[in-house]
Amino acid sequence: MNSLVLDFQEMDNTQLLLVGGKGLHLGALAKMEGIQVPEGFCVTTVGYQKAIEQNEMVHALLDQLTTLKVEDREQIDEVSKKIRQAIMEVAIPSDVVKAVAHYLSQFGNEYAYAVRSSATAEDLPHASFAGQQDTYLNIIGKESILEHIRKCWASLFTERAVIYRMQNGFDHSQVYLSVIVQRMVFPQASGILFTADPINGNRKLLSIDASFGLGEALVSGLVSADYYQVQDGVIVNKRVETKKMAIYGRKEGGTETKQLSPDQQKTQTLTDQQILQLARIGRQIEEHFGCPQDIEWCLADDTFYIVQSRPITTLYPIPEANDQENHVYVSVGHQQMMTDPIKPLGISVWMLTGAT
User: What is the rounded average pLDDT for all residues in the chain?
Assistant: First the structure.
């Protein structure tokens, strides 16, 4: 097995430090029966480390970064910018280039690919780091793919990513980046699926955001997506938005924003049958990973492809229940922060919870 590049099928769940959170989950999804994942491979963190290990400037700047605090925004911006520039100028090791060329020849040099960042501190159960590093869509040709691999490495040190790591106590020099190179899917629709409501914590309520074209339009806030909710296999809420724009891939590479026709703007993105089919896929993925999931999906040629799945990190943890009934949970720890006297009615309710 090549430690520089790993096919999704070659990965196992012990390789977080090699392929990062996103890569690890894609490898697991690719092995699931009935789940479609666009084929691809990961340039592992070993390739990134080999590229920067002899670069004295990068290491000196990293040392400088560790002395800064979140409040030092101007200095963080300046040092981060220098690190990104230094990484963009490093030579990709020849054995990494050779391994990438080998895998591209297997999957097809003529195809377009998405080049996606996957950090070791990413898509973790306690910290998602979602959107901290860069993704590039519809990249064509080996040289262009190699250039965008370097861009992904550099994106490990955007100001936003650096500050987020500081706030979550991660050592910059101990966070590495893997790069996913994955066959492009040119979808008619795409979006995000939550297998639990991230707002109210309802584990039974599944929600779907959907818009036409690539998911970048939704993620960037370019469009207001359709919103569907499913519970127990039934659509319980549906809101169809006016979607004026969509992002599509171009034949020559890259993406473009197009205005949708007036008729399509008000069309429901997914049919009811497709909504329920996607909900079933979401529940299957949730069961596999053992916790509520935040899933990115796309629909092409009437097939749903899963391009990412990560734990929902905003949900309050709850005890396991052995039945399907509704339960109310009270956090007893909150009483430590009650600085005012509780009134008699409040005391009566509090005693009913058994938290006396």
Answer: 88
